[in-house]
Amino acid sequence: MAYISQYQYYENGGVVPEDANWGSYQFISLTDIVNNFLLMYAGNHSLVNNEERYKILFHAKRAIQELNYDAFKEIKVLELTVPDTLRFILPSDYVNWVRVSLYKDGWLRPLTENIQTLSSKAYLQDNTGRILFDQYGNALSPQYSTIDLERLAKTKKSIYLNQGNQYNGQLGWNYDGMWYFEANIGAAYGLNTETANFNPTFNIDRKSGVINFDSSMSGLSCILEYVSDGMEQGDNSLITVNKLFEAYIYAAVEYEILSSKLGVQEYIVARSRKKRKALLSNAKIRISNIHPGRLLMNMRGMDKQIK
Amino acid sequence: MYICKKELMINSVRNAVLSVLNKNNYGYISPSDFNLYAQNAQMEIYEEYFNSYNKVINAENARLSGVDYADMEQPTAEVLEYFLRTDYLTKIAANKFSMPTPATTGYYTYMLLDVKCRPVTLKTGTNTSVVSSQLVDSTATFLSDDISAGDVVTNITTGLVSTVTSVVSNTVLALDSNIFLASANSYGVFSSSTNVQAEKVINNKLTLLVNSNLTQPTNEFPVYALQGSELTFYPTTISNKGQVESTYFRYPAVPKWTYITLTNGEPVFDQSQNDYQDFELPPEDEYKLITRILQYCGVSIRETEVTQFSMAKEQQEQNP
Predict the structure, then answer these.
(1) What percent of chain A has pLDDT above 90?
(2) How many CB pairs (< 8 A) connect A and B?
């Protein structure tokens, strides 16, 4: 990509959207990566020779995908209101989640993933328990399983210490100024910290592409932080990589090609593997921005007396 | 290296061939026979240049070739580059284009070296009036269509192609040639800033490639497949003349030794004939042409000595 003028950068040359080029200098485009690789690392006098461009494109994209999963730290955030169906449909570019939070009363409450299931598939059965089938031999399913039905009807109980807890609202009695209940949570072995959370809980149904919430989440605002693979819905013109990872991408493509090519000596493959690994480590350290100024705020508390 | 081209080389080659043949009264070949042998000899040597180039590259990789005066690659490359041409490819059907042929570009293609595409269409329309070397469309908004100097304009009706030299106004583009000779011609303006190289893909990989999410052809990475003399491009938006430009090695022109009169039964060389064509190889290939033509002549006049002589010369040259 060509260098642009300051006017192009700040105001996109007077064209809408004005912010199209803001921060663009941090990144290198996929097109540039493939072109540069073909120019600098492939050819008659290079280790990589006689390779189709689409292979280089493939390995470059795979490297970008891998970087997006962890190294980039480019977290996408989506806010949606959870409807009565208690489902949050995963974003179209979702690959994995980082954090699910409830946004309520002006602050974010990170939610806990429910260790039990919140949703299930079901088959229709007759009174002897036999599964019912249609004319094509497929098992018949109800619209909702019992667990789903109860969750949607807000009658499903929860092992978490929230509104759905099985003991929530139970009557107790007061004796000598102390309240006593039938179920004394945590009395014998202490509180189960794994389920000791007041907030709504969720499960991610990856195959169905939804996050299922318990009934206390209905109508509330959910913030999903997630990672994508950086493929920008297949639009190659939008795929970019932070320049700190540029050398790594070249090394990764070179390694992938050399390691799968017939007749390349193992020492050359090993060399390219080491180069790739070293460049990834360097890039990760650089993108982490570990420098004294950043650590200072944390270090200031080190001499604080614990009361 | 190929800057100095010997004039009338074909005549000196023919004189040398006849001289060798007549030395011991081996025989004589007619101008038409000579022309046939000359064509074949030139073609053989032309193809050898590609093999030589490959050998030079291998020698370089084995550190057997140096730089400066020891550079073996440059002379070979420069001979080959003499035969390079760049032309727009002619559209046959939607996203299908013809290989360069005498009918479309004036030359036969030996090998496609590079195929460039301009997949992004900036503007399509119809011209509303005719002004020399201009595209005039009273309904257009060229200024806001992001058109700039260097973009390519095709008269889709006639297939003529030109380049934008400047954007005169919203409705007028100045062009470097006069391609609109009538009004109501369809046109397309294609972006040169998105000029990208198209990759050739072998046909059995094409379906796999198109169906793959990661390698699917796009405007940034277009591909083409070759069947017969037809190039099919993907993405299929590449479908107009002006969008595809090819750099290719053409075949050398067929050499022809021409004459007009016969003096004492001998044809007299005359390079002013319309169909006269000299060899297109550099001067140092003259002796190769002579020995190759002599080989053909030896077979033709059934003189094994001629063939053996020329082959021995060639052998000597290859293994000094």
Answers:
(1) 71
(2) 43
The answer to whether A58 contacts B219, with C-beta atoms less than 8 Å apart, is: no
Lowest mean pLDDT among A128-137, A266-275, B186-195, B302-311: B302-311
Strands B196-200 and B223-227: parallel
Residues in chain B: 320
Task: With CB atoms and an 8 Å threshold, state whether A58 touches B215.
Answer: yes
Q: What tens digit of pLDDT does each residue of A191-236 get?
A: 788 888 889 999 999 999 999 999 999 999 999 999 999 999 889 9
For residue A86, what are its two tokens? 């208690």
Which B residues in the span 180-199 are in contact with A, Cβ-Cβ below 8 Å?
196-197, 199
Q: How far apart are CA B304 and CA A217, in angstroms?
A: 99
The candidate with the shortest Cα–Cα distance to B34, out of B16, B56, B48, is: B16
Residue B59 touches chain A, beta carbons under 8 Å: no
Please choose, from the candidates A240, A249, A282, the residue with its C-alpha nearest in 3D space to the C-alpha of residue A23: A240
CB of B12 within 8 A of CB of B286? yes
From CA B28, how far away is CA B17, in angstroms rounded?
9
* Residue in A57, A62, A231 nearest the CB of B221: A57
> What pLDDT sits at residue A192?
80
Q: Minimal CA–CA distance to B192: which of B155, B224, B146?
A: B146
**Residue in chain A lying closest to B217 (CA):** A54
Yes or no, beta carbons of A44 and B57 under 8 Å apart: yes
CA distance A271 to A273: 5
Residue B155 has pLDDT above 60, yes or no: yes
Q: How far apart are CA A29 and CA A237, in angstroms?
A: 7
Q: Does B214 touch chain A (CB under 8 A)?
A: yes
Of A101-110, A149-158, A188-197, the range with the highest mean pLDDT is A101-110
Query: Does B206 reach chain A within 8 Å, measured CB to CB?
Result: no
Of the candidates A52, A62, A237, which has its C-beta nearest B220's C-beta? A237
Kindly report the backbone phi and psi dihedral angles of residue B130, in degrees, each rounded to the nearest multiple of 5, phi listed first: -110, 120
Q: What pLDDT is attached to residue A1?
A: 62
ipTM: 0.86
Using DSSP bridges, classify how beta strands A112-113 and A201-205 pair: parallel, antiparallel or unpaired.
Answer: parallel
pTM to 2 decimals? 0.86
Residue A139 has pLDDT above 90, yes or no: yes
CB neighbours of B310 closer than 8 A, spacing ≥ 6?
Answer: B290, B291, B292, B294, B295, B298
